[in-house]
Amino acid sequence: MTPPSTILITGASRGIGASIAEHLAAGGHRLALCYRSDRGAADQIAATVQAAGAEAEVFQADMSDPQETRELPARVAARFGGIDAVVGNAGMTKDGPFFTLQADQISSVIRTNLTGTLRLLLGALPFLEQSAAGRIVLVSSLGGVYGTDGQVPYSASKGGLIGVTHWLGELLGPKGIGVNAVAPGFIETDMTAALARERIQPFLDVSALRRIGKPEEIAQAVRFLLEPGYVQSTTIRCDGGFAR
């Protein structure tokens, strides 16, 4: 994005979110790095970003908490003078056979991944509308496109983000606000590291690249979508050519 902008990134203390922050640092942006619990990891990413020439500050917020989520954009805007872009990356999962899941397991995933993101955007929209080039990029998942066995709540929440992207893009396009999403396949993160290799391998066997992706490859797609352009209301699949 040119000129330097204020970008709010949720789930920024590790994995894809941390890589997004690092990729945006070279542009000299002002980065608001949101974390839920690991302040040390968030501070480390902030230090890396600052060393690369960008301004960064960490903000604690639990995306499942309605008040914290709605208030986060205002806190960021108070610190940086506004918000030009939101990257909704925060997410969690509760895996298991669908019929064995408890109601609280399902609701906790939906509350964090989908409802929390919606509340965040509601809080951020007044600031994005004041920006000369507002942008929203939501991090969905291949599970949100196709569904994933053993991850039904996660897939449902990420599929919801795709629907939100398409609707918001139509609503906000006339106002000049770009809205798009990325849908990563299997990426080298703490979340996928917890999965048994036999669960991942069938997906790799039907992908063109036959490998797990890297966080920086998703960050590249996010950086592209943050630039002004003709892409709108679109979900870009970053899944190594997965075919189903």
Please give a quick description of this structure.
With 244 residues, this protein is of the alpha/beta class. It contains nine helices and seven strands; from the N terminus they run E-H-E-H-E-H-E-H-E-H-H-E-H-H-H-E.
Describe the structure in your own words.
The chain has helices spanning 15-25, 39-51, 66-80, 103-128, 142-146, 152-172, 190-193, 197-205, 215-226; strands at residues 6-9, 30-35, 55-60, 85-88, 135-139, 178-184, 234-238. Helix 4 (103-128) links the parallel strand 4 (85-88) and strand 5 (135-139). With 244 residues, the protein is an alpha/beta fold. The mean pLDDT is 92. It has one domain: NAD(P)-binding Rossmann-like Domain (Rossmann fold). It has a seven-stranded parallel beta sheet with strand order 3-2-1-4-5-6-7, sandwiched between helices. Helix 4 (103-128) runs parallel beside helix 6 (152-172). One of its GO terms (biological process) is monocarboxylic acid metabolic process. Keywords: Oxidoreductase. This is SDR family oxidoreductase. It comes from Stappia taiwanensis.
